[in-house]
């Protein structure tokens, strides 16, 4: 368990792109899921939410039930006009210590979210509020594009995008991510020292 926890701590510090490389170039969410402000970064265990399209009752339930440090991951189905997140849930989630939100739908109240500096990753904005008539589903596996997200998987997002690392793979991916990050930093040093890009990348 100690090694598992140590691996998780390492993974949380890594750039999302480095983790994608270390995980075998898989686990990335759709590129259209972007941070609402450039400095946004999130790293935590997934608390999964599947909404019935256009219904946000499940999101309200998730904010109440998700533990501190969790990343709420929302599958909004086919809904694009109805917002999956907004200002009120941002305030409640931040107060609880929830780490952030990733949604394959839209959000609203962007001013409130950005003012609070609360990490939200979504496909865009919509001023249309969702309904609250269907309870949805919490703690279920999700398919966000080609990425499968299970409750308790690690989700990391930054300005490059969002990636998920399955809990069973943390130790292996952490080892590879450390090696990858060392290579990336060494490459940057060589470039700054004036070495040709072709030589650094071993092209040609």
Folded structure, characterized:
The chain has 204 residues and is α/β, with parallel strands linked by helices. The chain has one domain (2-200): 3-Layer(bba) Sandwich (Glucose Oxidase, domain 1), CATH 3.50.30. It is 35% helix and 22% strand. Strands 1, 2, 3, 4, 6, 8, 11 and 12 form an eight-stranded mixed sheet that branches. The protein has a two-stranded parallel ribbon with strand order 5-7. The protein has a two-stranded antiparallel ribbon with strand order 9-10. Helix 1 (2-13) runs parallel beside helix 6 (170-192) and helix 2 (16-22) packs across helix 6. The longest helix has 23 residues, at 170-192. The mean pLDDT is 94.
Structural class of the helices, strands and pairings? alpha/beta
Can you name the CATH architecture?
3-Layer(bba) Sandwich
CATH superfamily: Ribonuclease E inhibitor RraA/RraA-like
- The proportion of residues forming helix, as a percent range, comes to 25-40%
N-to-C order of helices and strands: HHEEHEHEEHEEEEEEEHH
Coarse shape: globular
Mean pLDDT: 94
Low-pLDDT segments: none
The CATH topology, please? Answer: Glucose Oxidase, domain 1
Q: In the CATH hierarchy, what is the class? A: Alpha Beta
- How many domains comprise the coordinates? 1
Separation, N- and C-terminal Cα atoms: 45 Å
The biggest sheet, with number of strands, parallel, antiparallel or mixed sense and barrel status, is: 8 strands, mixed
Strand content: 15-25%
Helix run count:
7
How many beta-strand elements?
12
Q: Roughly how many Å is the radius of gyration?
A: 18 Å
């Amino acid at each position: 368990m100690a090694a598992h926890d140590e691996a998780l701590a390492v993974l949380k510090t890594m750039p999302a792109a480095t983790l994608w490389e270390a995980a075998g170039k898989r686990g990335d969410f759709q590129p259209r899921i972007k941070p609402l402000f450039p400095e946004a970064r999130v790293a935590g265990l997934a608390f999964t939410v599947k909404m019935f399209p256009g219904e946000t009752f499940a999101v309200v339930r998730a904010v109440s039930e998700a533990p501190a440090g969790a990343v709420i991951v929302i599958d909004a189905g086919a809904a694009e006009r109805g917002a999956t997140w907004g200002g009120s849930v941002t305030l409640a989630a931040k107060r609880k210590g929830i780490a952030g939100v990733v949604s394959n739908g839209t959000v609203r109240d962007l001013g409130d979210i950005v003012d609070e500096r609360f990490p939200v990753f979504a496909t865009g904005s919509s001023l249309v509020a969702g309904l609250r008539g269907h309870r949805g589903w919490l703690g279920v596996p999700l398919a966000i594009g080609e990425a499968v997200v299970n409750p308790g998987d690690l989700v990391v997002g930054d300005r490059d995008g969002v990636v998920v690392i399955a809990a069973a793979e943390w130790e292996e991916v952490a080892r590879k991510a450390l090696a990858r990050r060392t290579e990336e930093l060494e490459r940057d040093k060589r470039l700054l020292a004036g070495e040709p890009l072709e030589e650094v990348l071993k092209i040609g």
